[in-house]
Specification:
Length: 114
Amino acid sequence: MDEQEMKEAQQRFWHNLKDLCKSHEISLRKLTADIGIATSPVTKWKNGAWPDTKTLKLISDYFNITIDELLGNYDVRTGDLLLSQTEKKLVLAYRKMTDADRQVINIIASKYEG
């Protein structure tokens, strides 16, 4: 992930967090109190810092969503996978490939499937 994609991902997290609080009619201050953390990290998150893994888990559990949804890897409303600009370029390139080229890519991709 390059610097721009990292910045976009962090912005998705921040917007998702604000939207979740708004939709649950709670303030960020109430969220931090409810999950037992200080309010000071919120300003850092707004300015581009990431919460630690433990805090991400606390927040996602609080809203009953996955960490992927919280981070903006999936659209919480639709469940659609969100792609970075690089991933979108790869999808578009794949669609333009010949069947033989696609076979090669599929073999490579199969090595990384979970």
